[in-house]
Every structure is written in structure tokens, then in C-alpha cells.
């Protein structure tokens, strides 16, 4: 890691920290394919043959600076400690993970939103699938609370 002399240590880490969003936002674009970046290595063997999605790591995407021409490995299994990029956790025999990383390149250097929910249709880039997952989670919680309240009401009626 290179430390810049003019930046304080806390400013250096703040400037190079990976940023995760906290808001659930609906996509405001009609033609999503024109907005989501394209994976230059989209048709590589491991990318197109893996039809299953990994476990959800987070319901928010992560903004990461990526360089043009460099090959990156996006974690599909959801077990990597360096999310959203792969750290080869899938190779640990005891974990019995069948999913492999998705290799990708970007066309231009810049910051990109990478998916952390692992449910995106445009691997590895976020397409808003986490919003649907978040809504499903909220609905499950609401139903659990409703069932618990109904059980309490029935128990109180029995007494």
C-alpha cells in the first residue's frame, strides 16, 4: 500500500474505502441495458455455464474503482471475505462450494456498482435485484409478526 505524504492516514483510508449504499432506490432508467456496464468477458466459459446464484452477502451494491483492461474475479458463491471480489474461499474443500468466480473486464476506467446480493442478471454489475429481495424480506418479517400476534390473541382467548 502506498501512503501519500500530503494526505493524513485517516484521509488516505477514507479516500480508498469501498462505499456501500444504505438507501433502497428504484431504478429510474427505462432501458437498463444501456445503463448497466457490459462485461467484456461475458461469454467466457465459467460465466455463461453457471446458472445458479450464490448466497446473499448484502442487500446493497458496492461502488468500486476498476481499471480498463484488468481482469477481475467477482465472487458468485457469496462466501468471500473480500466481497464483492473473490478471495478463493470456494476452493476450501470443507465448504463444498460448487460455484466459481465470474471473471470480468470493464471497457473504461472508473467507478462501478458491483452486486452483493448475487441475484443480478447482469453479472457482476448491479441491476437492482436487491430491491426485490429487500421487499421480500420485509414481507416475510411482516407475516411473522402477524402470525405471532395471532398466536398471542388465540392464547389470550383460551384463558
TrEMBL record:
<protein>
    <recommendedName>
        <fullName>Iron-binding zinc finger CDGSH type domain-containing protein</fullName>
    </recommendedName>
</protein>
<keyword id="KW-0411">Iron-sulfur</keyword>
<keyword id="KW-0001">2Fe-2S</keyword>
<feature type="domain" description="Iron-binding zinc finger CDGSH type">
    <location>
        <begin position="101"/>
        <end position="136"/>
    </location>
</feature>
<dbReference type="GO" id="GO:0051537">
    <property type="term" value="F:2 iron, 2 sulfur cluster binding"/>
</dbReference>
<dbReference type="Pfam" id="PF09360">
    <property type="entry name" value="zf-CDGSH"/>
</dbReference>
<dbReference type="GO" id="GO:0046872">
    <property type="term" value="F:metal ion binding"/>
</dbReference>
<dbReference type="InterPro" id="IPR042216">
    <property type="entry name" value="MitoNEET_CISD"/>
</dbReference>
<feature type="region of interest" description="Disordered">
    <location>
        <begin position="137"/>
        <end position="159"/>
    </location>
</feature>
<keyword id="KW-0408">Iron</keyword>
<keyword id="KW-0479">Metal-binding</keyword>
<dbReference type="InterPro" id="IPR018967">
    <property type="entry name" value="FeS-contain_CDGSH-typ"/>
</dbReference>
<dbReference type="InterPro" id="IPR052950">
    <property type="entry name" value="CISD"/>
</dbReference>
<dbReference type="GO" id="GO:0005739">
    <property type="term" value="C:mitochondrion"/>
</dbReference>
<feature type="domain" description="Iron-binding zinc finger CDGSH type">
    <location>
        <begin position="61"/>
        <end position="96"/>
    </location>
</feature>
Amino acid at each position: 500500500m502506498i501512503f501519500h505524504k500530503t494526505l493524513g492516514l485517516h484521509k488516505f483510508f477514507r479516500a480508498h474505502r469501498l462505499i456501500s449504499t444504505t438507501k433502497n432506490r428504484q431504478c429510474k432508467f427505462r432501458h437498463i441495458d444501456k445503463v448497466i456496464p457490459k462485461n467484456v468477458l461475458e461469454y467466457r466459459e465459467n460465466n455463461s455455464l453457471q446458472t445458479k446464484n450464490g448466497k446473499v452477502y448484502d442487500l446493497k451494491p458496492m461502488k468500486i474503482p476498476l481499471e480498463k483492461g484488468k481482469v477481475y474475479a467477482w465472487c458468485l458463491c457469496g462466501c468471500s471475505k473480500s466481497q464483492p471480489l473473490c478471495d478463493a474461499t470456494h476452493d476450501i474443500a470443507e465448504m463444498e462450494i460448487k460455484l466459481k468466480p465470474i471473471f470480468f473486464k470493464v471497457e473504461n476506467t472508473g467507478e462501478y456498482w458491483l452486486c452483493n446480493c448475487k441475484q443480478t442478471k447482469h453479472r457482476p454489475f448491479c441491476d437492482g435485484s436487491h430491491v426485490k429481495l429487500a421487499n421480500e424480506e420485509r414481507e416475510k418479517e411482516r407475516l411473522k409478526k402477524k402470525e405471532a400476534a395471532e398466536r398471542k390473541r388465540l392464547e389470550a382467548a383460551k384463558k
